[in-house]
């Protein structure tokens, strides 16, 4: 059996993926992969996702330069969520979010509202042209 056959793909042929920074264990982002994206990620050692909005493979960092080097690929106990252990490249500290922040999870629920708790490290206007 092919290792990709063990993944429980959803009705659209996708699996949710969490990117976690190796070392700090910060959760950087959430995305989706199709079979080809997961296969390319394993082959290249670089995160490749599937963009649902563009309906195509998305090589993380192809526009921004914020590439993710993949150290480990893990599958959860139900075989329906993938975890990538990555090093975020392209800026120090690493920027994973299109808003120019380290992590996409920069809003924290506090006292009945969402509060931004992580700074913008680089203006997104200067990242994406």
Automatic annotation (TrEMBL):
Cofactor stoichiometry and binding remark: Binds 1 zinc ion per subunit. Binds 1 Mg(2+) ion per subunit.
Claim: Amino-acid biosynthesis is one of the keywords in the record: yes
Pfam families: PRA-CH
Subcellular location: Cytoplasm
The EC number(s) this enzyme carries: 3.5.4.19
InterPro entries: PRA-CH (IPR026660), PRib_AMP_CycHydrolase_dom (IPR002496), PRib_AMP_CycHydrolase_sf (IPR038019)
Record keywords: Amino-acid biosynthesis, Cytoplasm, Histidine biosynthesis, Hydrolase, Magnesium, Metal-binding, Zinc
Annotated positions binding Zn(2+): 77, 97, 104
EC main group: hydrolase
Protein known as: Phosphoribosyl-AMP cyclohydrolase
């Amino acid at each position: 059996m092919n290792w990709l056959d063990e993944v429980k793909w959803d009705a659209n042929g996708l699996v949710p993926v969490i990117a976690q920074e190796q070392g700090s264990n910060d959760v950087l982002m959430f995305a989706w992969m199709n079979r080809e994206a997961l296969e390319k990620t394993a082959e290249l050692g670089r995160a490749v996702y599937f963009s649902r909005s563009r309906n195509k493979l998305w090589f993380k960092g192809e526009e921004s330069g914020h590439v993710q080097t993949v150290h480990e690929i893990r599958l959860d106990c139900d075989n329906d969520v993938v975890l990538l252990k990555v090093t975020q490249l392209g800026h120090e500290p690493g920027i994973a979010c299109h808003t120019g922040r380290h992590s996409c999870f920069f809003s924290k629920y506090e006292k009945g509202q969402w509060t931004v708790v992580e700074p913008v490290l680089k203006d997104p206007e200067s990242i994406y042209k």
